[in-house]
Amino acid sequence: MSENAGRWLRDEIENAILSNEFGPGERLDEMVLASRFGVSRTPVREALMQLNAIGLIEIRPRRGAVVIDPGPHRIYEMFEVMAELEGLAGSLAARRLDEPSRQAITAAHKRCEHSAEAGDSDAYYYDNEEFHKAIYAASRSEFLEEQCTQLHRRLRPYRRLQLRVRNRLSTSFLEHCGIVDAIFAGDGEEARRLLRSHVGIQGERFSDLVASMATR
Amino acid sequence: MSENAGRWLRDEIENAILSNEFGPGERLDEMVLASRFGVSRTPVREALMQLNAIGLIEIRPRRGAVVIDPGPHRIYEMFEVMAELEGLAGSLAARRLDEPSRQAITAAHKRCEHSAEAGDSDAYYYDNEEFHKAIYAASRSEFLEEQCTQLHRRLRPYRRLQLRVRNRLSTSFLEHCGIVDAIFAGDGEEARRLLRSHVGIQGERFSDLVASMATR
DNA sequence: GTCAATGATCGTGTATACAAGAATTGAAAT
DNA sequence: ATTTCAATTCTTGTATACACGATCATTGAC
């Protein structure tokens, strides 16, 4: 348990939402949560407000908190923004790359390769996250890194869905290769372009997303 | 006063921070704030946590809240991200422009023109905000609009500083003209490019920022 | 039978009380 | 004089109690 109950609860409830235990639209009763986690309403309310700030739930005054249902279109919009931010991170990384960042990216990239070859989608899911985070860090813009990490976290469940699509694993890794090449070559604009299309969900990938959301 | 004290307090304290009444690094005592605003600590704590989520203050466990001091470099990073998001908004606006958005942009642009000609920096500050918001809305991406609005709000005080720089008013308006042309022409990439350089603070504008921050 | 009004009930919003960790101050020892 | 340790005080974190608005059900009228 984290040092204060509020943040611990935030993570607990967040996980419950991301793992779909609390489905979209579901009402979150403060007292129910309080007794479930063995605390009073006060830290529960703190956690709920933080989740509200993150954008996972909506708190309507005097009417309680409900889990937000983003809907395919909004998810598409979120990926669109994510693509833009990652593109920026990539272009900065390419221009500012130093040795530690280079090594971090290489290491994460290698781990992705192993997971992809093994066809281990769960491992790739994790390694992919590390790969992208390595690029955020390499941008050497702390603010950008924070923004990317936050949005990445929020998109986590949908990313997971995407990886289940046929061939997505190897396609994703191939795209990573191009991105790494561009960054290491110092080609910021190419890195930006590749990351944008890697992260965004254009064309058929959008229907893939909608389809996988329908069957969860 | 808003319907619940928490949000009202959030706005109150936020304004106090943005207007520099609570300076960077300053400690925010819950009881002091509570008695100042005539409420108990509970809504004060709620407001502080929301401000923490926004990024205006930092809450260290058991050690209270302090106003964050971004520092020139971090502000630069924030403008860099803002420029990217606005660029995206502009490019989407150019591709998706409809009649209501076109009218909204035109109206805001006209108001900017008047303020700029009058040399009224306060009026321009406000009209400029409306102009940019019109572009966010024209992107027809609700999520992007929210992100832009949020970041714009956070950068408000520094934007204000920037406008005080000599000739910035007319320069800014001239840039607006180009942006409007590109959007109305449906040239998404040009709109993106122009907005990026309009919003970002490259070169001498960065030293202008640092200088104006030092003398406030 | 349907709709509206009124009262009951439930849940959130706020205040206050209590617990526990951190900062501070003072004294003692080196 | 300086440093360290301990005790006190101050502030935050959590629980609980109370107030008020919203929702729901029941009853009455049309």
TrEMBL record, chains A, B:
Keywords: DNA-binding, Transcription, Transcription regulation. GO terms for molecular function: DNA binding; DNA-binding transcription factor activity. InterPro entries: GntR_C, TF_FadR/GntR_C, Tscrpt_reg_HTH_GntR, WH-like_DNA-bd_sf, WH_DNA-bd_sf. SMART domains: FCD (SM00895), HTH_GNTR (SM00345). Transmembrane segments: none annotated. PROSITE patterns: HTH_GNTR. Residues 3-70 form the HTH gntR-type domain. CDD domains: WHTH_GntR. This is FCD domain-containing protein. It comes from Rhizobium fredii.
